[in-house]
Amino acid sequence: MIDPRFFTNVGPFTLGEIAERLGGTLSDGAPRDLMVTDLAMLDDARETEIAMFGDRRYRAAFANTKAGVVVTNRELAANPIGGDTHLIIVEKPRNALAEIAWLFYPKTEEALGFDDEGRAAALANGARVADTARVGRNTSIGARTVIGAGAVIGHGVIIGEDCVIGPSSTVGFAILGNRVQIYTNAVVGAQGFGFVPVAQGLRRVPQLGRTLIGDDVEIGANSAVDRGTIGDTIIGPGCAIDNLVQIGHNVRMGRSSIVCGQAGISGSVEIGNGVIIGGAGRVADHVKVGDGAQLGGGGGAIQDIEPGAIMAGLPAIPIRDWHRQSIGLARMFNRVKKKD
Amino acid sequence: MIDPRFFTNVGPFTLGEIAERLGGTLSDGAPRDLMVTDLAMLDDARETEIAMFGDRRYRAAFANTKAGVVVTNRELAANPIGGDTHLIIVEKPRNALAEIAWLFYPKTEEALGFDDEGRAAALANGARVADTARVGRNTSIGARTVIGAGAVIGHGVIIGEDCVIGPSSTVGFAILGNRVQIYTNAVVGAQGFGFVPVAQGLRRVPQLGRTLIGDDVEIGANSAVDRGTIGDTIIGPGCAIDNLVQIGHNVRMGRSSIVCGQAGISGSVEIGNGVIIGGAGRVADHVKVGDGAQLGGGGGAIQDIEPGAIMAGLPAIPIRDWHRQSIGLARMFNRVKKKD
Amino acid sequence: MIDPRFFTNVGPFTLGEIAERLGGTLSDGAPRDLMVTDLAMLDDARETEIAMFGDRRYRAAFANTKAGVVVTNRELAANPIGGDTHLIIVEKPRNALAEIAWLFYPKTEEALGFDDEGRAAALANGARVADTARVGRNTSIGARTVIGAGAVIGHGVIIGEDCVIGPSSTVGFAILGNRVQIYTNAVVGAQGFGFVPVAQGLRRVPQLGRTLIGDDVEIGANSAVDRGTIGDTIIGPGCAIDNLVQIGHNVRMGRSSIVCGQAGISGSVEIGNGVIIGGAGRVADHVKVGDGAQLGGGGGAIQDIEPGAIMAGLPAIPIRDWHRQSIGLARMFNRVKKKD
Questions:
Q1: Is CB count within 10 Å lower at the N or C end of chain A?
Q2: What is the predicted ipTM?
Q3: Is B249 designated active site?
Q4: Distances from the Cα of B271 to the Cαs of A136, B264, C243, in angstroms?
Q5: Do A243 and C187 make contact, defined as CB atoms within 8 angstroms?
Q6: Domain identity same for A81 and A194
C-alpha cells in the first residue's frame, strides 16, 4: 500500500480495467470485476492489491505473496505461487508496473515549497523555522527542531525532536526520527531514477515510496537520498552519511553504518550494521553488504560482501588480494621497480 | 555569434586593436581597420567574426571556416584554409581567445536572482512560481510550468510548457523544451571550468555559450550542467540524467540517453542516442560515444566508444575483456581462489 | 585556540575536571587545579591549552608542543616530549578529544540563516545582497561583493571585495579574500565528517575549525569545502575548484592548483602549488601532493605524490606505468587485440 500521507490514489479500478490498460492476459478464473485498490510490493501486498513479479530473484516473495493480483510474464508465471492470487500476464512486467502506477497515481506533487501551512503547527510545537523556509501542509515537526533558511519540507513529512534541517535542503515523502541532522543542500526523498524502455525512448516509473530515517542520522551537504519506488528507502539509526553521497531508491541501511564522501549506493542495496563505505566507493544495485564489512575508497562492489570482509578495487575483491595484484602488476610491467 | 539574450557585447573592435591587445602578428594583407563584431566557433563564425584554431583536431573546421579572422599559432597556421580569412598569429591561441572574450564581454552576469521582473509574465502565461523563487527579466515561461521555492531563473531564459523546476535549483543562459524536469538543487547553465595558464597562475576563460535542453529531459537532484564556452551544451530530447551528475561545457547528447548517478561527462564530449553511462562512469573530454553504447558503473572512457559497444573499467575496455582481466588477475595473484 | 568569532567557549575547566570527565590518568606531578582555557592542535597550542596526540605521524609535533596539557595513550606517551607539558593518559585519545571538544563547545551553531543582522553593514560597505539571501551578525562583506538569492552567510564570516557568492550557496565559519567566486549551491565551511566509534555506535567529533580562502579562488556549483576540525581548511590564492568537488576538513592547498569536477580531497591532505587533480580523482586522507604534480581523472592517490609527478590509476602509480599495465594486461588476457 502506498502511503496516503504523501500520494493521492485515484483508484480503485477493476481487474478487467487494469488488464485491458496493460494489454495483458488474465489467468484462468480471474474475476474481471475484482476491485483492485492499490499497488504494493510482493511481500507487502494485501488481497485487494496488485504487485509485480519481474525478476527471478524475487520468486520466494512470489511464492508467499498475499497480493490479490500479480502482474508477471509467461515465463515467470511458471514459478510456484500459493493462495488465491490472480495473474495478469504481460510481456514486460516492469513496464506494466509503471503503467499501473500512473493509473492509480497520475499526479505526484514533488516537494516544491508552494505551501507553508505547516509553519504555525511547527512553531507551536517548539520548532524554529527560518522565514525563507517552507513547511508544507499536514506535517509534524518536533520540539527544538531547527529548519534553516530556504529549506523546503514537503507535505505530510514527519520530523522528530532536536533535528537540524540545513539551509536550502529539501525533505519530502519522508519520516525522520529524533536528533537527525540534514546538512546544507541535501535532498531527502528525491524522486529515484526509474525508467523503462519503450518504443519512443524512456518511460518514467513513478516513485511512490517513502524515505525513513532513524534517530541520530547525519546526512552531509549536497547529498541525495531517493525515496523508494514502492516501499521505502530506510536509513537506520546512527548512520553517518558524508557530503555528495547518493543513496538510491529502496536502499536499506542498518545501524551506525558510515558512507564517506561521494560514495554511491545504488537502488535496492542492503547494507548491514557498522558497515563502512569509503570515499567514492560504489555499491551496485541489489548488492548486499554484511554487518561490519568495509569497502575501500574508490572501490566498486558488484557482488555481495560477506559480513566483516574488507574489500577494495573495481570490481571489489578482498583488500589483501587487491594489494597483491597491485604489487604483482608493478613487478610485471613497470620499468622502475620500487623497493617496497 | 554569442547570444545577445544572455551576454552583452561591448564591441565591435578593429582587427588592429585586437591584434595589438593580443600582442599578435597579422597575416599578410590583413586590413587593420576591419571591424570585428563578435567571436564565434570556427564552424559557426561569419565574415565579421573572429574564431580560434588551437588544436589539430579541428583542422577540417579551419579549412572550411567562414570566419573573417582566425587567431592561431605559427605551426597550425600552415594548415590549409579557404576563402578570405585573415589570421592573427600568437603563441598561445587558447590564451588569446580568453583575452578576446574578455574584450568583447568584460562582464558576465551570473544567474544571481536579484531580478524578479519575469514573474508577472510567467504567471500571466499560466505558470506557477513560488514566492521565494526569482524569475529574471526577459524570460519566457510556458503554461503549467511550476517553479519551486528558492529556484532562480536567470535573465533571458526560455522554459517550455509543463516543466518542473525544483526548489533551490538555478537555470541560467538556457533554453528548455516542454515537460522538462529539473530537480532540487540542480544547476543548469553553470559557468564551465575553463582556465588558461598564465605567468601568475590561472586566467579565467569567460563562458559565453548556452545550455539547450530538449523536450522530456530530466535532470536529477544536485546535478550540474555547464553552459558552453562558445557554442552550446546540448541535452537531446528524452535524456534522463540522475542525481549528482556533472555535464561539462559543450557536451552534446542525443536522444533518450541515460546518465546514472554521480557520472561525469567532461567538456566537448559527444554522446549519441540511447546511450547508457553507468553510475560514477566518466567520459574524458572530446570523447565520442556512439549510439546505443554503454559504459559500466565506475568505468572511465578516454577513447571513443563505438556504437553499441559495452565497455567497463578504467581505462574503459570491452566489458568481456574487463571480466577476463579480472578473472585472470585473480588466478595469477590471489592466494584463495574462488571456484567461479 | 578556537576562533571566538565562530565558536563560543564555555570554559575554562581545571585539569582535574577534564581528567575525570575523560576517565584518564594524570602524569606525575600534574596540578589538578591548572586552569585549561581551550583546546588546540599540538603545534598551535599554548601553555593553558590542551592538545591531543593520537597518531605516531605527529610525534615531531608532540616533541615540540607548547601545550600545557596533552591527552594521549600509554604507548604514545613514551615518545619524547619537551618542556612543561602535562599528560592525561587515556585508552582512546581521539575519543577523548571529542569529549573535550563537547565540554568546551557544547553547542555549535551551524550557518542556518536565521539571522540577517549583517545585511545593513554589507550594503553600507557597497555590497549587493539579494532579498532572499541572509547575512549573519558580526560579518564583514567587502565592496562590490554580490550575494545571490537564497545564499546564507553565517555569523562572523569575513568576505573580501569583488566576490560573487552564488545563489543558494552557504558560507560559514570562513574568511574569504578578494575576487573569490563561490558558485550556485556550493557549501563553504560545512561540518566535516568526524566520528569516533563508541560502544553504542558513532560519536560526533565537533568541528571547531575554520575555512580560509585566498584571493581569486573559484569554487564550483554543488561543491563542498569542510571547515577544519581544529585548525583550518586552507585554499590558497588562485586555486580553481570545479563542480561537485568535495574538500575535507583540514585540507591545505597552495597557490593556483586545479581540482576538476567530482574530485575528492580527503581530510588533512596537503596539496602544493600548481597541482592538477583530474576529474573524479581522489586523494586519501593525510596524503601530500607535491608542487606541480598531476593526478589523472579517476585516479586514487593513497601515498604521497612527488613534486612534478604525473600519476594515474587506483592506486595511483606513474602514468607511464599505468599505460604499460593497461597494454600489458590487454596482451595477456584479451581475445581480440587491437593493433595500436
A1: C
A2: 0.95
A3: yes
A4: 40, 12, 20
A5: yes
A6: no
